Amino acid sequence: MEKIIGIIGIAGAVVFWVLSYLSLEKMVLMVDMTEMNFVAYGSAALILWMICWIRGACVKLDRHQLATLLLSGLSGIVLYNYFAQMNIRSFGSGGAMTGIGLMPVLTLMIGMIFFDYRTSVKNILLVMMSSVGGLIVMNPFREGFHQYASSALGFMMVAGLLWGIYTFQSWKLVKSTDTMFGVAMQFLIAFVLMGLYLVYKMALVPYYMPFEWARQSENITVIGHMIQLVLFGYSGAYCLYVYALKKLGIMPTVVFINVVPLIVMMVMSASGNGALAFHHISGGLMVLVALFFIDETRRSRWIS
After folding, report:
1. Could you give the CA distance from residue 104 to residue 108 in angstroms, rounded to a whole number?
2. Is 302's pLDDT higher than 50?
3. What are phi and psi of 36, to 5 degrees?
């Protein structure tokens, strides 16, 4: 039953991330990313903290938990979203999707090098199969791909390494605290860090006018996208992802991320922006087979 709940959780996170990618593709061209994330992180932290307060889930944290929160908030929220959003801004959602296939492999690599994570040979092969399938879905041989492939993959490789750190730190955190409260504190830390950077920009960047977009006629559209980002892309998706980590373990949860490019392609096809091709189906089948057979067989001295 716990496995089914975990699968539902990560499936929900994937759907929420797809929605947020479609919003971010428009937002990063309309507003300053620092200001957007400052507002979004603060809103997500407030919403989650209020829910935790109503649930009575707010607890006192020790210094080890605070250190874990600081590292996870910096790596998985502030820095990961910076590189992912720069990729979307430069190359669109297609560029961002291209590198997502590498995230399971990069997460596994981070775990094995820095967190003494050990898993079976079967799982390693399935993670590699899933990543190849995710890349095939995006068809790296398509016309025009070479124009931005190296830069897009570079951005997403850095983002993938940061996500690997976030994943292991969050997995460690949820062993000792409430999932939603942990994510709320991560967003609070991200909000504070973005606030400090915003103050730096206001003080040192000449002619910088903060929140100029809020005074423009398109601000209603921006607010709509912002609400979708806060509720789905940040509050909802992060909570469901960390909850799935708790129920399923690292590898099954991370491999599920490769469903994101497949869903994006299906949404684009349904909206008339493309058609499902053989490489979408074959790559998607590789991802689904990997998901079906992967498990959380592992040994780690960091987490029992």
Report:
1. 6
2. no
3. -60, -50
First to last CA, the chain: 21
CA angle 97, 102, 108 (to 5 degrees): 140
Q: Is 269 helix (H, G, I), strand (E, B) or coil?
A: helix
Is the separation of the CB atoms in 168 and 250 below 8 Å? Answer: yes
- Report yes or no: 245 and 168 within 8 Å, Cβ to Cβ: no
Q: Residue 161: CB partners within 8 Å, gap ≥ 6?
A: 106, 109, 110
- Is 50 exceeded by the pLDDT of residue 301? no
d(CA 43, CA 241): 19
Question: Rounded to the nearest 10 degrees, what angle do helices 179-204 and 149-173 cross at?
Answer: 130
Q: Quote the CA–CA distance of 36 and 30 in Å, as a whole number.
A: 10
- When the pLDDT of each residue in the chain is averaged and rounded to a whole number, the result is 82
pTM: predicted TM-score of the whole model, two decimal places? 0.87
Q: Is the dihedral of CA 24, 26, 29, 34 positive or negative?
A: negative
Question: 121: buried, middle or exposed (CB in 10 Å: 19+, 13-18, 0-12)?
Answer: exposed
* d(C-alpha 57, C-alpha 180), whole Å: 8
- Residue 50 burial (C-beta neighbours within 10 Å; 0-12, 13-18, 19+): exposed
Rounded CA-CA distance 299/304 in Å is 8
Six-digit token string for 204: 């040192």
Three-state SS at 99 = helix
